[in-house]
Amino acid sequence: MPRSKKSLEANKVSFKGSFASLKFVPRFFKEIRKVNPLLFYANVLARTINAILPVVILIVGKLIIDEVVLQIAAEEKDLDRLWLLVAAEFGLAILSDLMSRAISLTDGLLGDQYSIDTSVRIIKKTSELNLDQLEDSEFYDKLERARQQTTGRVGLMSNILTQAEDLVVIFTLLAGVVAFEPWLIILLVVSVVPTIINEIKFSGTSYSLARSWTQERRELDYLRYVGASDVTAKEVKLFGLSDYLANRFKNLSDTYYLMSKKLAKQRAGWGSVFNVIGTGAYYGAYLLIVFRTVAGIFTLGDLTFLSGSFNRLRSKLQGFFTRFTAITESALYLQDYFEFLDLKYSDETSEEKLPLPKKIKKGFEFKNVGFKYPKSEAWVVRNINFELKAGEKLAFVGENGAGKTTLIKLLLRFYEPTEGEILLDDIPVKEYNQSQYQQYFGVIFQDFVKFELTLRENIAMGEIEEIGNQNRIDSAAQKSLANEVISDMPRGYDQQLGKRFKQGKDLSGGQWQKIAIARAYMKDAEVLILDEPTSALDARAETEAFDRFIKLTEGKTAVIISHRFSTVRIADRIMVLKNGAVLEIGTHQELMQNDMLYAELFNLQAQGYQ
Ligand SMILES: Nc1ncnc2c1ncn2[C@@H]1O[C@H](COP(=O)(O)OP(=O)(O)OP(=O)(O)O)[C@@H](O)[C@H]1O
């Protein structure tokens, strides 16, 4: 676990590594510009004007003081030029304020638009990826970092633009200072070098710390959720778990707090030591300017201009380097984000694919299929051979963990078999385009999603393009018996479901299930898969749901997983799985005559009902 110093070292990103992350900055800006070109160029323009203003303001300030000194000495006072200069300085101050406001306005608007854009892209990209990628914890961490840094990316944008702006300020001020007193440059270097050293020393460390803690942060989020959520509240209360969860949360957070506190203290400590050196150099420069003014080499105006310029230069340069560290740190997150967006899913990379047959002619065939989950050594299923014929209703039965859902995931091509192959009408399913292939199926999983959206949306999710097709939604609801749920809802189809939102209504397990089944009917799928779809229905509703299912899906191919044998027996054929292998397959009668596991389990359940 990366809670030790050792793992922090392992995750440490070098200063060079931080530099390398800057290569993502051009792409980042291209994307921002694409989001809203007008706002982007307005921002750049305002920043350019704002960058030139400081030196102009200082020069006008110097001219004002020189003019004042001149007028004090003059016998006949002529204040016209002075008024003009003061008016110019006033105008410049107003312009500077306007530009700053324009910058923060455009920064904010661009930032908002960009963060909407990135969130949308992350959602879309996630849907393109394979299940094995999504279930991989390393990948999940990457996704987490890509997602978390949405606000960080907005800060990065304004930091980089400010950096460019400050670079212009620094060069214009430098030009002014060099024109008067080139020696000051050496003192300037001495005054900022300590800051640079400090930044290099700590660069990357805080990012490394945050990065090495991605897993733990996930754990913290989870503990926070488990400890304070309506879903877990019943068990947490009943088992008195809140102290245990709170302590576990606190212990883990404290470890992180202590590590980051140590880092922050070191940074602050060294920062103050280096600052003393820097401030010393600044006052050295100040003395030099004062002496030259007393000696009559500089005018009073030069004195104000130089000391003002020098002071600004120092703070701008310091800011430049501090910001540089912040930029490289955030750019490392940018790397996570772009790497995530660039992830390929296997089907994308493969060559031309075959068009899918409009109608399934023969059916599916599993040939010697074996499968191990990624990063696992154990065979979950092996030597699987069976046919799912076109139009057939096949049921899978078997004990928990026998591999039933895994076979469904393989059939749906969420995973590729480790050995053997799956054929559709004698052609390996790999030959077909994956997403088109998946469109063939209407599936209700055991752990189907309870979308906390409206009832209508929950059903229409089966074929979202048809959300406006009321007839289709009505028909799906009738087939699945969800119409009974709808008539109980005060707002009918527009009823918000779940407890998360205002006026939301939570449903019973069985009611949710009826809605989920409606979702499967919504799609005019070639193959229907119901993975324990009726476990929460009462006995009467279950029988009714299955009778309907068989009638309504006449001619369609279907796979049903169920632990209830009364349901299973109405399937055309039943496949019994044990420890990842096919134990027996046949009709209910055949399996009863076989007198093996199926007959044993069937009789066991039948006795229970007597
Ligand atoms: N994503 C995964 N990664 C690794 N192993 C997994 C994964 N999903 C399931 N398994 C393992 O594969 C085996 C078969 O699981 P599967 O879900 O296919 O069983 P099942 O027959 O559907 O069980 P149940 O009746 O309990 O739903 C189990 O031992 C399980 O631990």
UniProtKB/TrEMBL annotation:
Membrane topology: Multi-pass membrane protein
Lyase listed as a keyword: no
Subcellular location(s) of the protein: Cell membrane
Ranges annotated as spanning the membrane: 38-61, 167-193, 268-289
PROSITE patterns referenced in this protein's UniProt entry, alphabetically: ABC_TM1F, ABC_TRANSPORTER_1, ABC_TRANSPORTER_2
Domain (ABC transporter): residue spans on this chain: 364-604
Limits of the ABC transmembrane type-1 domain: 44-329
Residue runs in coiled coils: none
Keywords from the UniProt entry: ATP-binding, Cell membrane, Membrane, Nucleotide-binding, Transmembrane, Transmembrane helix, Transport
Pfam families per the UniProt record, alphabetical: ABC_tran
Protein name: ATP-binding cassette, subfamily B
Taxonomic source organism: Salegentibacter agarivorans
